[in-house]
Amino acid sequence: MAERRYYERHIERTSEEELRQLQTRGVAEQVRKAAESDFYATRFKVDGFNPGAVSGLDSLSQVSVTTKQDICRDIDDHPPYGSRLVVPLSEITSIVETSGTSGKGKEVHVSTAADKQRIIRMEAFGFHWAGAKSGDRIAFTLPIQMTAAGIWWTMALDRMEVNNLRLGDFDSDRKLDYMLRYSADLMIATPAYVLRLEQAAHDRGMNLRQSLPEMRSILVAGEAKSGAWVAEREDVWGATFFEQWGCSAGAVAWSCENGMAPKGKPGLVHFLPHLAYMEVIDPESGEHVKDGEYGELVLTPLGIEGAPLIRFATGDRVRYLHWNNCSCGRQFSGIEAGSVSRYDDMVKIKGVNVWPSAVAAILEDFDDVVEHRATIYQAEDGREKVRIEVELTPEGTASASSSPLLKSISDELRSTTGINYEIAVWQGEGSLETEITMGHSGKVRRWRDLRSGGSEVEVAS
Question: What span, in angstroms and rounded, lies between the C-alpha atoms of 149 and 207?
Fold first, then answer.
């Protein structure tokens, strides 16, 4: 059992009932503040909801969810921040945008000075649970732009007095050089980039476990990954993997000290109940799902001063886990590590529903597959087809023409998803990872849907 690392011991050892009471007070205050905005004053009126009558968390079910489209439309109508703002413009001290991965515009979220302190507190939990401490050297491989992750993580790490090696603008070899030079203790990367670094290390004959003996924790976000994938990576790096789920709207969840996949099985990514009220809703019934079931993640961040947000429907499909699924003892429920996919990423091919995350999980089971990209298109005869390009290890590439690897991949995908795939070896220059990474967001887009003249399905899994 991992040694407990409490960041706020009094909160982390609070009972579920006490946390629920704390959340109820937080929700009531957030609703009251949201009612001061034009956005929610109108919405509450339409919903027939009395913002002064929040008697419990169940009261929120009377409020319709706020979607990404709602936020983006409001920003278009009331630029540049939208009508959720309840503080003077002079009190805004931070601005972040979403990466716009769903192709439906970018959200804009603002913070006051007090909101920034809340963000630092929120992010520090996960870094502390992962073992980060003053004086550590952390390899920060993501570029820092306008998205929340880079900005918020950097703020928290600076407050924790961690040496933040800002390596986002360097190529893989130079990143490795810096990690070697300063004996990095921790690393932040997307799962796709973890594999890219492994390939770069392999190309230079470098054993990561031996060359980076101080590396003990790797924090990842942005892609669904299996417990087996995590176990294999931990063996390569000699470090424990931790996952963050994050939302620019003002909520995060983190793996505790047990890591992303204790004993090779997906762990629990804990939400912070004193800083956000989490719901996982069945999209059909609107009811909260049961322990172990899948649903859409809906969030009400607590303690936001500048632009409150009530019942934000994230569009993320997650597997809800009660807190008793984790041995850490914190009564913080959350979601299963590696379970996140997007409802709007599901694609229908030949009348069959296909989840790109399920395809990715199958490909991960093939040791020689480093990365992949899928293209859906319509052939000249009108039939829908799917072509998957796979980047292979040097060993896999050398034997691909004479081995049954590609056929095995095709057979496994057809058996699992029910449709046929064309499998080809990636022939481009450099790494496929660079082709599918979405600019500075750090997310990846592995699927392209060209059936309607070039529009693309953007997938972060």
Answer: 29
Asked whether 362 and 383 are in contact (CB, 8 A), the reply is no
CATH number for 428? 3.30.300.30
Residue 442 lies in a domain: yes
d(CA 243, CA 433): 20
Please classify residue 106 by burial: count the beta carbons closer than 10 Å to its beta carbon, then call 0-12 exposed, 13-18 middle and 19+ buried.
middle
Q: From CA 175, how far away is CA 167, in angstroms rounded? A: 6
Average pLDDT across the chain, whole number: 90
Q: For the beta carbon of residue 331, count every other beta carbon within 10 angstroms.
A: 20
Nearest 10 degrees: Cα torsion 56, 58, 62, 67:
110
DSSP-derived 3-state class of residue 179: helix
Strands 186-189 and 217-220 come out as parallel
What pLDDT is stored for residue 435 in this prediction?
A: 79
CATH number where 216 lies: 3.40.50.12780
Tokens 């529009």 appear where? Answer: 455
Beta-bridge partner residues of 312: 66, 299
State the Cα–Cα distance between residues 259 and 254, nearest whole angstrom.
Answer: 9
Half-sphere exposure in the Cβ direction for 58 (13 Å, CA):
1
Write down the pLDDT at residue 194: 92
Condensed to tens digits (0 to 9), the pLDDT of residues 405-456 reads 898 999 999 888 888 999 999 888 777 877 777 654 556 778 888 886 544 4
CA distance 51 to 35: 7
Domain edge (last residue) among 292, 316, 343? 343
pLDDT tens-place string over residues 171-199 = 999 999 999 999 999 999 988 889 889 98
> Which amino acid does the sequence have at 414?
R
**Stated pTM of the model:** 0.81
